[in-house]
Amino acid sequence: MIKLQGKLPKNIILACSGxxxxxxxxxxxxxxxxxxxxxxxxxxxxxxxxxxxxxxxCWRNEILFDEYHISTNKPKGxxxxxxxxxxxxxxxxxxTKTHGIPAVTCHHLDDCVETWLWSSLHGEGKIIxxxxxxxxxxxxxxxKRNFRMWAEVNNVPWVEDDSNADTCYTRNYVRHELMPHAxxxxxxxxxxxxxxxxxxxxxxxxxxxx
Length: 210
Hints:
This protein is α/β, with parallel strands linked by helices. It has helices at residues 20-30, 45-60, 80-99, 109-120, 144-153, 170-185, 189-199; strands at residues 11-15, 34-41, 64-69, 103-104, 131-132, 135-136.
């Protein structure tokens, strides 16, 4: 149901939003790994609800939990999404240095397809890489629906972010407006991108091990 690329060490950091993808990943990884959860508050109304939800979940399940707040000082010429992404990685990079263990993000196959479509419209289709410094993305072969299926089958709770439906954000516009048309043109697009993910040079997956 959930496919894991590469070998992960016993101790890892997981970037978790409280959404269905990351909560399913947390449940999946916690069965074999010692997970330290990091939550980044984006300063939105949803963020506060998600922070409380995730903090309580980690407390009940005896999972280490770190929370951070993103700077509201967005540089000129940088989109809100890009600012949030840059700030998240600053926090995660610092945590990997502090604890000496890799961080995992929950990017999945649907994310790879959407990113490839968006980047293709800007001139060159790109695949989300397996690794960025000490941050790894081992779920790139798993479809989003499988995370939801895992959560439902294993009674894993999650919290929905209403802003995911807001097409003012580029990522949401690609997901809700462009993807249906792209899949109408090529219903096998996920398979196409999955092959690209498999062929991608993800820097010797076995290099991250104990």
